[in-house]
Amino acid sequence: MGNLSPIARSGVVVRRAGGQGVRVSDTSRIFISHAGVDRSWAEWASWHLEHAGYDTELDCVDWKAGENFVERMHEALERENPMLVLLSSAYLDPGRFTTDEWTARFAQRRKDVDVKLIPVRIDNVDLRTGIWAPIIVPSLCDLPSEKAVQLLLESVGGVLGPPAPATAPRYPDSPAPAASVDAGPRRPGSLPSVWNVDRRNPAFTGRDGVLNQVHDGLSGAGRVAVQALHGMGGVGKTQVALEYAYRFAGEYDLVWWVSAEQAGLIGEQFTALGVELGLVEAGADSTVAKSKVLGHLSGQQRWLLVFDNVVDSEDVLPWLPRGGGHVLITSRRGNWQQIAHAVELDVLPREEAVRFLAEQLPGVDNDEAGRLAESLGDLPLALAQAAGYLAETGMAVAEYRQLLVEETRAVLDLGRPVDYPRPLAASIALGVAALSEVDPAAVAILRLCALLAPEPIAVDLIVEVAQPTEPYPAMLAPLPEVIGRPLVRQEAIGRIGAYGLARVGSGTVTVHRLTQAVVRTQMEPSAFAELSVHLQAVLGRMYPGDPRDPASWPDWGRLLPHLLAVDPAHTDDPALRLCACDAVVYLIGRGDTAPARQLAVNLFEEWRHRLGADHRDTLRAASEVIWALRDLGEYSRLQPLVADVLSRQIRTRGESDPDTLRSASDLGIILSLLGDHQHAEEVGRDVWQRRRQVLGEEHPDTLRSASSVAATLRDLGRYQEALTLQHQVWDQRRRVLGEEHPDTLMSANGVASVLGELGDFQEALTLWQQVRERYRQVLGEEHPDTLMAASNVVSGLAKLGRYQEAMTLGQQVWNQHRRVLGEEHPDTLASANNVVSALGELGRYQEALTLGQQLWEQRGRALGEKHPDTLRSALSLAIAYLNQGRTLPGRRMAELAWKGLRKQLGAQHPTTQKAAEVRDTAMQMMGGQAGGNKKRRR
Q1: Average pLDDT, the chain
Q2: Distant-in-sequence, close-in-space partners of 460: CB < 8 Å, separation ≥ 6
Q3: Is the peptide bond preceding residue 421 cis, with omega within 30 degrees of 0?
Q4: Which residues form the TIR domain (predicted)?
Q5: Is there a domain that residue 502 lies in?
Q6: Residue 896 is inside which H or E element, if any?
Q7: How far apart are CA 916 and CA 922, in angstroms?
């Protein structure tokens, strides 16, 4: 059949049935505002309005693929064209984009009462309260098709008046009508006269995008349009097809459902269709019925055949009619390229899974529903089973989730939905049993995948696991003969997907977490343990490279989920333990510090219990805990932990062991973060010297020590020494690591910082801007290092007197820091300090004072009252007081800052001297005020 959408048009030229272009004004076109779930209503309304002579604009029809949807929507809402609003429960859902559409139109109406709004109700949504209550809203739902069309036209005509006469549109690419005019689609929800579809699922949720995608695919004209929904078992293929049939039923005169799992029964169902159409008698031969039905359908336009649960494309190929109708196929297999356009169905998006559970379990809040959806992997069948069982028994969600871990197979056998033939666990078990009869190698691959993560598993990893070793797991015995033969291997992997037990992508296999759990329950404990040990050994060998180097991060990203799945905290494999520690480094380098800390703490605590507090791997894990805490800004916890690790390493490994030197380096960095720069320099220089002797002059660890010393020299105010050393390290890192390695960029940032302290503000700003751009390209917009570089750009702008630019960027960076790192992370507070300074320079003294007071208190909590950064905030607060003429509190804060900085940094440090200047200024201001008072007293 042809497309039932309004006629294709280009720009503002509308092509009507006679082929003549009619130029219309944008402001005269009726924009149809609707929710995605109500697309069938939108197309129905558009068709009948066009038929009557009105011009319409409908996003899914008039906007071309690839256009900017948000931009086009903004343009449509900005115009003063009439808006037809299809009100429904979905439309008024606050979480949908439609909220922006109707609220924007109400805002326009407040400014201009002539702006046109035409609301109609298409379901039984309650409009008795709220903004829509006083507005008359006609209801189209539950009316016969003819009366619904009449009421729609009356509603539009009552606002816009009668349309210009026009020739009725026809379906695109269909023959021009002879004597009769096509009546168009029926009201959505009205069923055709020939219909055998099972009852609609009242709990169906979401999938609007998939349903509309299928509809677009089926609406192509010129041949039979065939769409094939495919995906793993339990993903909801049949339910989507069922919903499609009901949602778009008004567009068809015939909808026939064919259960195709057993190909031999298709003929009987075609015979039943022939009887329904009056083409054959009951009991007719299926061959005759097939011929009659296919012949009839080839001459018709508005029909839909659904072939559900097809096992093989060859099973349905002989039953596909010719002509202009639609065919929708559901199958676990994806090999439909020759006869259909394939649409792969995945699990529900988390938001839709949560909405489904919340609707089915009214007492469950969204957070609880989200945790349950995560445990079930968002698989529709599992969600339906869980909702049914919980609703029936009243079991707590937390208890169900716990049982799901402890007794997966038993739990997945509970609560089978009435419209699914068997529970999820039984369905998976039957699939595995059937696969084992056909391809033992495929089952072996499935089993090894069941012990990895429910994330894409690279075929290369499977090949590595399958390589023969001594010992070799008996469970993988079928693989050595297959794994080295790419064609045979890929056939085995393809069969896993064909049986609905996995998703097969380009070079990857993904097994759902619940499928994995059921497959694991089928394994003998000894075989499970044997395969686990083998996997741990293989993964430990698959080292992706330096975890600090972004070039290795894609490989780390692919390996990490599977590394964690084999539980490195409990492994006896030394290589896997080392790899797990470096995985923490990778996470920190990538900016995922919170999960890095969780992993590091888990490794440290478990290894301390199993291996002992002095074991090398335990201490390595402790070092990663230290680094994670440092990046999270939890400085107060660092010194005792690093001191304990360092003392154990010195005792067990010696002072010059690389691991000991790593911890000593950590100590120097922590001392500097805590404001003890003098002690930090002593420790840092000692480590630098030892690393040069042990590792060499240009080893990356040696260069890290040199960079730390240079940073400490800057903190101590020894800027020229710092600049010389930073330049040296920057040159070495560019040569050893490359221009865009994060360590190289950190050195460039260090050079710029010292240039700024020396007063070369323009060169510093130029370099900071370059560093920021490189960070954005390598690490991303909101990586902590990128934000640090952006914060430095703010400082450079301010030093050049570009205060408004500094204020704009500073506010942005501060907001990003708060979102990424939290309100009181030291880096967040440094960003806030930039904003305080910019506010003061712009004369916004009260804002500067308010934020400065807050910042001083926050730094005191986070860093301690004597930390140099806290004292710098006290100095900024003193300046803010003085700018407002409040000399007494200004002098007190300046005195506090000067005394503290003199003790922490020394009297000659530039920041201490600045504090002394501010203190002296405050005293002079007070003296002037006192003199003025005496004069007045005379």
Answers
A1: 85
A2: 507
A3: no
A4: 26-160
A5: yes
A6: helix 887-905
A7: 10
Where does residue 652 rank: exposed (0-12), middle (13-18), buried (19+ CB within 10 A)?
Answer: middle
Give the domain range for residue 383. 350-420
Give the side-chain half-sphere CA count within 13 A for 908. Answer: 4
> Among 51-60, 158-167, 622-631, 869-878, where is mean pLDDT lowest?
158-167
Q: Judging by DSSP bridges, how do beta strands 194-195 and 303-310 pair with one another?
A: unpaired
Q: Identify the CA nearest to 231 among candidates 344, 347, 353.
A: 344
CATH value at residue 331: 3.40.50.300
Residue 128 near residue 161, CB atoms below 8 Å: no
**Do residues 784 and 631 lie in contact, with contact meaning Cβ atoms separated by under 8 Å?**
yes
CA gap 170, 51 in Å, rounded? 8
Rounded CA gap, 16 and 237, in Å? 38
Q: What strand order describes the sheet that includes 9-10?
A: 9-10, 13-15, 21-23
Q: How far is it between the farthest Cα atoms of the chain? A: 125
Nearest 5°: the CA angle 662, 665, 666 is 90
Query: Which residue, chain included where needed, has tokens 């210009």?
Result: 164
Looking at the DSSP bridge assignments, the partners of residue 9 are: 14
DSSP H or E run through 457: strand 457-458
- Domain at 858, CATH number: 1.25.40.10
Q: Which of 542, 571, 600 is the last residue in one of the domains?
A: 542
Tell me the residue type at 523: M
Which contiguous run of DSSP H or E holds residue 194? strand 194-195
Same domain for 464 and 399: no
822: left (phi over 0), alpha (psi -120 to 50) or beta: left
Count of positions (residues) in the chain:
938
Q: What residues are paired with 31 via a beta bridge? A: 57, 83
Q: What is residue 119's three-state secondary structure?
A: strand
Mind spelling out the 3-state secondary structure of 258-269? EECCCHHHHHHH
- Both structure tokens of 446: 């499935």
Is 426 found in the same domain as 398?
Answer: no
pLDDT tens readout for residues 490-540 = 999 999 988 889 988 889 999 999 899 889 988 999 999 999 999 999 999
Exposure class string for 59-92: b at 16+ Cβ within 10 A, else e: bbbbeeeeeeeeeebeebbebebbbbbbbbebbb
- Token look-up 């221009």 returns 739
Q: From 403, 420, 437, give the residue that closes a domain.
A: 420
Dist CA 449 CA 467 (whole Å): 15
> How many Å apart are CA 385 and CA 420, to the nearest integer?
10
What is the rounded distance in angstroms from the CA atom of residue 462 to the CA atom of residue 339?
32
C-alpha dist (Å) from residue 686 to 605, 680, 728, 750, 815: 30, 10, 18, 21, 39
Instruction: Quickly count: other Cβ atoms within 10 Å of residue 878's Cβ.
Output: 28
User: What φ, ψ does residue 344 adopt, rounded to 5°?
Assistant: -80, 130
pLDDT given at position 633? 87
Our count of domains for the chain comes to 5
The kind and range of the H/E element at 510 are strand 508-510
pTM of the model: 0.76
Same domain, 389 and 483: no
Contact 61, 46 (CB under 8 A): yes
pLDDT band (50, 70, 90) for residue 264: confident
- 276, 304: one domain: yes
Q: What is the rounded CA–CA span in Å between residue 236 and residue 381?
A: 7
Whether 172 has a pLDDT exceeding 70, the answer reads no
Please state, in angstroms and rounded to a whole number, the distance separating the CA atoms of residues 622 and 827.
24
| 744-748-754-755 Cα dihedral, nearest 10 degrees | 160
Q: In terms of Cα–Cα distance, which of 900, 902, 878, 903 is closest to 891?
A: 878
State whether 412 and 354 are in the same domain: yes
Residue 795 lies in a domain: yes
How crowded is residue 387: how many other Cβ atoms within 10 Å of its Cβ?
Answer: 23
Separation of CA 488 from chain center: 36
Inside any domain, residue 461: yes
